[in-house]
Amino acid sequence: MFTPFPFKPSKSVLASLIGCLLFCSSVIQAKPLRMVDSSDGIPQYAKGLLKLALSKIPEKYEWDESTANTTENRVIQMLEDNQLDIVWYATTNDFEERMRPIRICIFKGLLGYRVLMIKKGTQQKFNGIKTIEDLRKISLGQGRMWADTDVLVANHLNVVKVMKYEGLFYMLDGDRFDAFPRGVHEPWNEIANYPALQLDVEENLLLVYPNPFYFFVNKNNAELARNVEKGLRIAIEDGSFDKYVFNDPILKSALEKANLKQRTIIHLQNPTLPKLTPIDDKSLWFDPYAN
């Protein structure tokens, strides 16, 4: 006569077997989540927020960072070819046509808040600037191919276009233009990286325009998009989203140094902003005057 066990298992053995079966089941059910291997700056921030969002939902994903980081165009092509599952970029109409956006800005719009990097000793050039008309009297350095450059040009500002990112710092120091607009989280660390140059942060002005930064997935991966959005919205509702954003060491330090409430805001239009941007949902955007 066959019996399933030659002995009667103890409760502890049964518990271990059940636990093992549940663990194996969870591993089998976990879905791959393939992304590029990059762990500093924006990628590090984005991955941390993604982990927070996924911790809020029952669906399980297996983290896979085995793909080497490469150029933006190549990364997007890999997502389109289903070789990656998720990426993160400032949105454009082209990106939203090629990929499926999750329309919750992971920086709460902070990348659209720009302060000016200037040459030390030139603050007096900027003290009288109050309006966009005043701003048009100075020259601004920008990368030739950057989306921000298109925004500045569309607002009829005086833009000096430069091919290499590093060259902008040396050209500013060399008086080739008056100011270099940077995201509020950027200029202090950048200035520290160029200690031989005479660079500073302008004290009074804040340029503001909508510049959403999203997670994107493959056009056909509606399930992943729904799950990530669900997790992000739960995090927004329970406060952990804002806690994550405003406790990020770089953003926290930058916001303390920037004194946004004391700055004169100059609003710029972003004519390339996709039409479906949820600009009226106040829960998704940072407001420097809210508190």
If you had to describe this structure to a student in words, what would you say it looks like?
It is a single chain. The chain is an alpha/beta fold and 291 residues long. It folds into two domains: 121 residues, D-Maltodextrin-Binding Protein, domain 2 (3-Layer(aba) Sandwich), CATH 3.40.190.10; 99 residues, D-Maltodextrin-Binding Protein, domain 2, CATH 3.40.190. 38% of the residues lie in helices and 21% in strands. The strands form four sheets. Strands 5, 8, 9, 10 and 12 form a five-stranded mixed sheet that branches. A three-stranded antiparallel sheet has the order 3-11-4, sandwiched between helices. Helix 2 crosses helix 9. It is elongated and about 80 Å long. The N terminus is likely disordered.
CATH superfamily of the largest domain: Periplasmic binding protein-like II
Domain tally: 2
Query: How far is the N terminus from the C terminus?
Result: 76 Å
Would you identify the CATH architecture of the largest domain?
Answer: 3-Layer(aba) Sandwich
- Helix run count: 11
Q: Helicity level, as a percent range?
A: 25-40%
**Average pLDDT for all residues:** 89
> CATH class of the largest domain, please?
Alpha Beta
The sequence of SSEs as H and E is HEHEHEHEEHEHEHEHEEEHHHE
Cα-atom Rg, whole angstroms? 24 Å
Q: Quick one: overall form? A: elongated
Structural class: alpha/beta
- Work out the number of β strands: 12
**Main sheet specs:** 5 strands, mixed
How much strand content do the residues show? 15-25%
* Low-pLDDT sequence parts: 1-5
